[in-house]
């Protein structure tokens, strides 16, 4: 308890909130908006599908920037936690567990981003075949 007071309950709560934000961003990368590209093609044609594809790509870039910004914000807080944990047996293991979680979330985010990009490209390739044939 003395360590929590020494470390600052609000500071620890801020670190945990930031970590939860990172988890949310990483989990929200994969969504079905890329299927809207296909719908736009059938409803409005190639130009509408190209616009929707660009929207999806821009959304993905925005999510990547947001994730990296939050990671940049979290890193100094994690260093503070590690420094505080060195003097506390009650926080022992917390900083390494958070570091492991952070590494896992970064890996999950990168994998989800890559899958989303690949699905966009697969759908776009399908649309091009529909539009121009098998060339």
TrEMBL record:
Keywords, ordered alphabetically: Signal
Signal sequence range: 1-28
Keyword Signal carried by entry: yes
Superkingdom as given in the UniProt entry: Eukaryota
Protein name (Swiss-Prot/TrEMBL): Uncharacterized protein
């Amino acid at each position: 308890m003395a360590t929590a007071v020494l470390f600052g309950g609000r500071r620890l709560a801020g670190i945990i909130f930031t970590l939860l934000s990172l988890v949310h961003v990483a989990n929200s990368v994969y969504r079905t908006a890329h299927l809207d590209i296909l719908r736009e093609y059938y409803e409005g044609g190639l130009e509408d599908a190209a616009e929707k594809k660009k929207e999806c790509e821009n959304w993905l870039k925005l999510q990547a920037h947001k994730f990296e910004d939050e990671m940049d914000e979290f890193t100094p807080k994690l260093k503070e936690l590690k420094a505080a944990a060195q003097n506390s047996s009650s926080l022992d293991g917390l900083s390494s567990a958070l570091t492991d979680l952070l590494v896992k979330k970064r890996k999950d985010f990168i994998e989800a981003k890559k899958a989303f990009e690949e699905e966009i490209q697969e759908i776009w390739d399908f649309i091009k075949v529909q539009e121009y044939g098998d060339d």
